[in-house]
From TrEMBL:
It comes from Sander lucioperca. GO terms for biological process: acyl-CoA metabolic process; fatty acid metabolic process. This is Uncharacterized protein. Residues 211-405 form the BAAT/Acyl-CoA thioester hydrolase C-terminal domain. One of its GO terms (molecular function) is fatty acyl-CoA hydrolase activity. The gene is LOC116059980. Belongs to the C/M/P thioester hydrolase family. It holds the Pfam family BAAT_C. The active site is at S239, D316, H351. Residues 19-150 form the Acyl-CoA thioester hydrolase/bile acid-CoA amino acid N-acetyltransferase domain. Gene3D superfamilies: Acyl-CoA thioester hydrolase/BAAT N-terminal domain, alpha/beta hydrolase.
Length: 414
């Protein structure tokens, strides 16, 4: 490298929401120099996550991650956000890790560095040519985080900046349990009053826990909030939360509009249909097969009278989502409400469709109950899964805006 001018690495914007793109540029390199761009994040559990790409500087001595090809690493090709979506635990990490932000009031910090040559390991033992720290936020400035302990309901409400009123969302996560706030925080940053709902602790779900009234009460807490438009409230469900979303839509007259991020899974923890793959990871998708013919054994989606969006992944190894959505479409067609259903299909994507640029998790640890932890196979391949996350998020936001906003969405700025 040049002895007169030090290489310079810049990230713009250095502070942004997690679903916003950034630009990473390295300057002052000798032309035609092989370099490695590397990202490193230490999560709240103290585990390290990294991604890297191999580049060659152009005739001006510059590398642009947005415009230039990565010739190797955790991603290849022209991938502006590859340093985020291809992150994985550093070598030697514990098996089955999953990266999830718990404290949404603080940013996800990512250190981006450039190294001499095409490096594949030992990044923390080498001195980088240049580095830059970037902040990735779920909660934009001005978004309010309000703990909810009301009428037996437990959760966290995120209110966008300003007086409102805002469209509202009930955000229901899946079978892992606990209070998961980061998606609601991001939705709050996009102009929605979003209630992240907790309905059981990790490893403690029993069928008797799923009281229908609990979810109706939570929905009404959102609807009746003074800063929420009472006729512009929907539900956003993931995994087990998708089933609960459909159940509320079909059985309750209070639901007006539904934003469903469909990942349809039940709690069948002890099903004989659970299989193991070559790594002894549990595969749950067979629990949903065959699709029942008897309407008494499934939700009567023919009764739904509001717009529904379902996101399906063809390599979902946790539930038979494609088969389930086909059956759902047949039922709605027979009932004359198929026009309300929008389906998104993603080949080679897995079960866990998260907000964009979240790393892909093909298999992670899962708490079945307090005494048993297993590794579940979620499915998906990293690049197509990441593409699915980015594409589906844009379409979900467009769907919500079309159905819940009477005026264009105003996203909070960092």
């Amino acid at each position: 490298m040049s002895d007169t001018v030090a290489p310079m690495l810049s990230v713009f914007p250095s502070r942004a929401l997690v679903d916003e793109n950034f630009k990473v540029v390295v300057e002052n390199l000798p032309p035609g120099s092989p370099v490695t761009l590397h990202s490193l994040h230490q999560c709240e559990d103290k585990h390290y996550w990294e991604a890297y790409g191999h580049y060659i500087s152009n005739h001006r001595g510059t590398v642009s991650v947005t415009d230039d090809l990565s010739f190797g690493g955790t991603y290849t090709g022209k991938e502006a956000m590859g340093l985020l979506w291809s992150m994985r635990p550093v070598p030697g990490s514990r098996e089955g890790l999953r990266l999830r932000k718990r404290n949404v009031c603080s940013p996800l910090l990512v250190n981006i560095s450039v190294y001499r040559g095409h490096v594949v390991e030992g990044f923390r033992e080498q001195a980088p040519l240049a580095s830059s720290l970037t902040e990735r936020w779920y909660m934009a400035p001005g978004v309010q985080r309000i703990e909810i302990r009301e009428k037996g309901v437990r959760g966290t409400l995120f209110l966008p900046p300003g007086p409102g009123p805002f469209p509202g969302l009930l955000d229901i996560w899946g079978g892992g349990g606990g209070l998961v706030e980061y998606r609601s925080a991001l939705l709050g940053s996009h102009g929605y009053a979003s209630l992240a709902l907790e309905y059981f602790a990790p490893g403690e779900l029993k069928s008797s826990d799923l009281e229908f009234n609990y979810f109706e009460t939570a929905f009404n807490i959102v609807k009746d909030h003074p800063q929420v438009m009472p006729d512009k409230v929907g539900i956003f469900g993931l995994s087990l939360g998708a089933i609960l979303t459909l159940l509320l839509a079909a059985e309750s007259s209070i639901i007006k509009v539904i934003g469903l991020m469909g990942r349809i899974i039940c709690d069948g923890r002890r099903s004989p249909k659970i299989r193991l793959d070559e790594n002894n990871y549990e595969i749950w998708r067979d629990m949903g097969l065959p699709i029942p013919d008897d309407l008494a054994d499934k939700i009567d989606v023919g009764r739904i009278n509001c717009p529904v969006m379902v996101v399906n992944s063809h390599d979902d190894q946790n539930w038979a989502t494609v088969e389930s959505s086909e059956d759902m479409a047949q039922m709605m067609r027979a009932a004359g409400n198929l026009h309300l259903l929008t389906r998104l299909y993603y080949p080679d994507a897995g079960h866990l469709i998260e907000p964009p640029y979240t790393p892909h998790f093909r298999a992670t640890k899962f708490v079945k109950d307090k005494k048993e932890k297993v590794i579940l196979l979620w499915g998906g391949q990293t690049k197509p899964h990441s593409d699915a996350q980015e594409d589906s998020w844009k379409k979900i936001l467009a769907f919500l805006e079309q159905n819940l906003y009477s005026s264009p969405t105003l996203k909070a700025k960092m």
